[in-house]
Amino acid sequence: MESDIILDVSGFSYAYGELQAVRDVSFQVRRGEFFSFLGPNGAGKTTVINTLITLLPLQEGVVSVAGYDLRQDRVRVRESIGIVFQQITLDKDMTVRETLDFHGDLYRMDRDQKIDRISELLRLVELGEKADALVSTLSGGMKRRLEIARGLMTRPRILFLDEPTIGLDPQTRQKTWEYLRAVNQEGTTIFMTTHYMDEADILSDSIALIDHGTIITRGSPEALKSGLGKDVIHLETGEMGRATEVILGISGILSVQPADGKLMIISGTDGARILPGIIRAADDAGIDVRSVSLKKPSMDDVFLHYTGREIRD
Amino acid sequence: MTGYIAVFKRDLRRYVRFKDQLFTSMLHPILWLSLFGLGMAGNFERILDSGTAPAGMIPYQYLTFMCPGMIAATILFSNLYGGFSLLFDKNWGILREIMASPMPRRDLIIGISLSSITKSFIQTGIIIIFGAVLGVTFFTGAYLPGLIISLAGMALFVAVFSAAVLCVSLYVAFRTTSPEGYQGVTTILSMPVFFASNSLYPTAGLPPLLQEVALINPLTHLTNGLRYFSLGDHFSALGLEFSFTGTEILISFIYLLVFAGISFFLALRAVEGAVIT
After folding, report:
1. Which of B1, B96, B276 is opposite residue A105, by nearest beta carbon?
2. Residue A253 structural domain
3. Predicted TM-score (pTM) of this structure
4. ipTM, 2 decimals?
């Protein structure tokens, strides 16, 4: 019986010359899991994924992909994975079918296998009618779907996706999510990097938050959000310091921190009941409150809480 | 299917699919021959008055003498720029997909070489046919078996040389980052190879230093091989006498093989050392 851990990374570091891009990162992905690396651009996500898919050398750390050692068994690793690159990586002068066929050839699939798999995948990503169209005639969303199909061509043990919905319009993103969910439900383990909070939140079984080359925290989206507290209140005021002191004195408040020009207040009890007390206390102290909002903790709040800033492009 | 056949098929498919590439690659040698060839021929004939051939040898018109050189030059230029598509793949295309696949790197080079050899054969065929239309007299007096041997010999020389030059081009494509840089390097490479050779004119008229360069220039050896198989082992042109022995031609061929081996090795090293992200 093979191990339940399909991707095992420990002590991973990577430097571009003097620049330390990733520092001592360790994590594990279980078979069948939808795992996301969530963090802002420049956090080191692409460096990690490019090393795992063998485009970059493994500098430091021990990594096993689908049971193969990334340092020793690079060809075996390549055979076991599927990849969707961040940038569109297609030959625009080939047809949809030729793109998949060529990919099958790179992995030495035999003819019958290729034919079966191509028709199966074209159905999955709904590109059957475009099978003989040139890639240059496809829309951005279709190209992405073709790349997802290509990544699945060889029935990989793990599918790696680097920012799969970057540059897509909202509708196409939704649709892409549906395909990815379907792929995962068919049993393919997925490792995805993204800087979209909603994307990671909606799709993942497990998220690792990464910033400045290290993992800040990890867990299921639910656990990460509920781990913050019950509700989150964002309060805008000109006197952040004094307001923090005053609000911290109110019972039920877990933490108050400046975040992106506002105060982020995490409440351990029902925020709707605690909010009037906050306003009253601020009023009594003569603090001017400009705006206030109350909501359930989101992934944005999780990131804000751990880094003190929002994810931006 | 083996990787290099897939690469070969993909490359040729593009060649045939986009008529502009197919058409220009065919037009290229025709223009060379009809513009440069006829222009030079007229001048050489006027200056040299090639009617004074030594006895017992076949005298050739300049156009016929130059035609194998024209084949050599065409093969040189098309293959020297043949790495361009790979540069494109590298910067904007599917090289990333290929590099992350389990296919051995050598299959990439072999596949592209095979397709470029095929394209070179097509160009060679066009020059031979179009040359005949313009009055080039190849294979004089040869019957079918001799003709087949001649064509096979030319094909061998063309194949080895085009693969060798293509590998140089791939090497440059992997070592340069921009199309401008690539073009600059290949253009500079092309000048001495083209002009310090015997493809357009006999090397006897070159300065001594350039004669030495021509002697080690692979293009010279290709041209010798092509002349041997298309014009014969003993002929005259431009008032000069030319003769080749079988051994000389064999040495030229081995020389080209070594050149191809070295450039293949360099290209392979460049591909294996490349980091594409």
Report:
1. B1
2. 230-296
3. 0.88
4. 0.87
